[in-house]
Amino acid sequence: MTSSRTRRISSVVAVAALAATGAAFTGGTSSAAPNGPTIDIQLLSFNDFHGNLEPPAGSSGRIITSDTYTEVGTTNPNTGVTTYAATPQTVNAGGVEYLAGHLKALRAGHPYTATVAAGDIVGASPLLSAAFHDEPSIEAMNSLGLDVTAVGNHEFDEGYKELQRLADGGCLPDGNGAANQDSCPGGKTFTGANFPILAANVKYKATGQTILPATWVKNFKGAKVGFIGMTLKDTPNIVTASGIEGLEFTDEVETANALVPGLEAQGVKAIVVLIHQGGVPARTATYPGGPNTKPATGLENKYDSACPAGTSNGLNAAASPIIPIAERLSPQIDVIVSGHTHTPYVCSIPDPAGQPRLVTSASSFGRLVTETNLTFDRRTQDIVRSSVAGSNVVVTREPQFKDAAQTKIITDYKQLIAPVASRILGTITGDITTSSNAGGESKLGDLIADAQLADPSVVTNGDVPTIAFMNPGGIRTNLTYANSPWGEAPGAVTYEEAFTVQPFNNYLVSMTLTGAQIKEILKEQWNGGVKSSPNSTARPVILQVSKGFAYSYSDATGSRVLGPVTLNGNPISDTASYRIVTNNFVADGGDGLPGFRDGTGRFFGGLDIDAFANYLQANSPYSPVAETRITKN
Fold it and tell me: Which sign does the torsion angle of CA 544, 545, 546, 552 carry?
């Protein structure tokens, strides 16, 4: 542990010295002619893993594989009513066992290869990793052969000192499971990351030194490739202030460009930037319509549709801060591996010298891996820019890709998690169920919506959500007064019981909608969650809403009509803007609610289960409230 910490501090000092001596931008282009003897180098990259050791469930565990949408009918077993929606073709993907297996398969035949990541490897993680301060995820990354990663904003979820511990190793004195977390459980030791975590633009205000190394160089038998790792400069606006007290986050472009001369002084001309900032592909898929659904446009595309033929015109410029960053990064930088937006793309964005430059992102949760192949010219010690080519590969779950070492890590920690799973969060005074009133509102839906509204992880720039929407399909079981198999007293709620209610590990997303957009979403839910469906008799997908928000509707004539919509007793204005929070499934238009896709200022917070558990702890004993938020006349 001492040696790891010494290595980190020495690297930080060395990098700071290099940056200080090379502040002026002097980088040239990375093309060189004629070529000398060359070697082929492979980069395998991913981003936003978020501790998803087990295969992620629901929409978080699927990848869209076709731009063709088809009509799919779902019959409710209780009512016999069939609802229809335009549905994309998908494949189940992700899970660290399969990620490791695919990486091994991709490395075959590539003697010169590096596996890299663009941040948020940990943070906002599922229970199996989060319960142990994400130590299992670091152990898994060590096992699968991660060479280097950039830091992301979620690595600061528990503060920068905890991030440094994940890098260096050592156990936390956390009371053996206090607050539903247990460092070094069962007498285990934690040695930290075997790979550098780069934080080039995260510095101590007092000294200007980086909190972790800024750069790292891999030497492929004399072919040196340098890596610069950074998080988004706006990280202070989206993490807890106390966790980054005394730090500053500098501009991504200025930081990287200042480091280029220092790398060149070490004889490193081939440079890759790993940056936790990204883009959003434009939604251009269309649906021609079917017997029960009308045509639709602006649908999400398949994972490899963005930026056809290596262009950048497949990204939504207004929602893609990576574009101006890429346009200004030094021409000496040859490849940009990005993240943060949880989206897939392999694009080409010209550098300041006008040369095409690859910019990639591999979605999230280990569902994709980007394979980038490039040629290194030994004579110029640089990458031949025209040789750089990349593509995203789906991390499918065929048995042959299941890695035994990762399976053992998962199995070991699942046995150790029992003390956390059985921990009592609080008490309830009676059953809290999904049984709904005439309008579709349930007591459990009210509780979960209130918990999401109260979650501080979705507050950004001081903008606090005032309305929460929860899809009923994400509530998988009732919260019952009777005791569970752990043997706790009746009325006590264990962490596992709370987790079973919301098992999908969806992330909370805050966004801004106008009053008119909110009203349109309320209308969408009545058609079985299908905005364009003519089937007015379909069972509605009624969104559960938070305290203070209320509306009424009528359908006496067979055609539902929206009545008054209020927030804290006041009518909402069509032209006013409202900050709302929901889960990532709904935010992406899930359950046939495309109106949420129009939200602006999207911000990913923590997991919905964490918000639920924290709310139960803070409001114990909890008594179910009367369903008065949604009224059907």
Answer: negative
